[in-house]
């Protein structure tokens, strides 16, 4: 060999499609156990930029309990008040592109400026083709007054953007579909994602 050995560049890694290997666990979707009073399901589907369902993604949630406290020892407001509430859920999408997390509707938490945020669930989306997770939120349609006061929702440019974050009531909880990109051919708007 007369020249120095050089390695070529390799393709960028993505966060999928191997999410089900070690990243999900059997009770991952259960922020609270089955039978917990007041438990609801957060359900939805994940769509890609073609408007197709994503069968191998993962949704991770983090939220406060109904009293607005986090399951973390550093929460200055004290421990969660609901026994067994762990605050985090993780659901892989099934071949139909659906996710589901059993939880409790969160309470309001301080916004850091003297006000309160509307009840919401923080969401990370992991899927093939993404170089990093996408971060969004789930708000609740039946919390209109709180949503109108929420600094994050107010910072969005229009009602169409806000609508991508607001889950609608269903028979057993709430439903919100997540769109990784917009698909105008199918009338789908991209979900609002946050740079964190």
At a glance:
With 196 residues, the chain is mainly beta. The protein is built from 3 helices and 9 strands, in the order E-E-E-E-E-E-H-H-H-E-E-E.
Describe the structure.
The chain has 196 residues and is mainly beta. It has one domain (19-186): Sandwich (Protocatechuate 3,4-Dioxygenase, subunit A). It is 8% helix and 24% strand. It is built from 3 helices and 9 strands; from the N terminus they run ββββββαααβββ. It has helices at residues 144-149, 151-155, 159-163, and strands spanning 40-47, 58-62, 88-92, 98-103, 120-126, 134-140, 166-170, 173-175, 178-179. Strands 1, 2, 3, 4, 5, 6, 7, 8 and 9 form a 9-stranded mixed sheet that branches. It is globular, with a radius of gyration of 19 Å. The relative contact order is 0.21. The model has no long low-confidence stretch (mean pLDDT 89).
């Amino acid at each position: 060999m007369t020249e120095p050995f050089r390695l070529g560049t390799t393709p960028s890694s993505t966060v999928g499609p191997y999410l089900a290997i070690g990243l999900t666990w059997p009770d991952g979707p259960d922020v609270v156990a089955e039978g917990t009073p007041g438990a609801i399901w957060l359900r939805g589907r994940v769509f890609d930029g073609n408007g197709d369902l994503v069968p191998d993604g993962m949704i991770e949630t983090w939220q406060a309990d109904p009293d607005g406290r986090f399951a973390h020892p550093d929460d200055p407001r004290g421990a969660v008040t609901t026994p067994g509430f762990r605050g985090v859920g993780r659901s892989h999408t099934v071949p139909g592109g659906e996710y589901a997390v059993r939880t409790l509707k969160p309470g309001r938490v301080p916004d850091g400026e003297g006000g309160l945020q509307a009840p919401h669930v923080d969401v990370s989306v992991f899927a093939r083709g993404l170089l990093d997770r996408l971060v969004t939120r789930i708000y609740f349609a039946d919390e209109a007054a709180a949503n109108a006061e929420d600094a994050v929702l107010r910072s969005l440019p229009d009602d169409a953007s806000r609508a991508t974050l607001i889950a609608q009531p269903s028979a057993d909880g709430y439903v919100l579909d997540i769109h990784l990109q917009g698909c105008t051919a199918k009338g789908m708007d991209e979900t609002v994602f946050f740079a964190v």
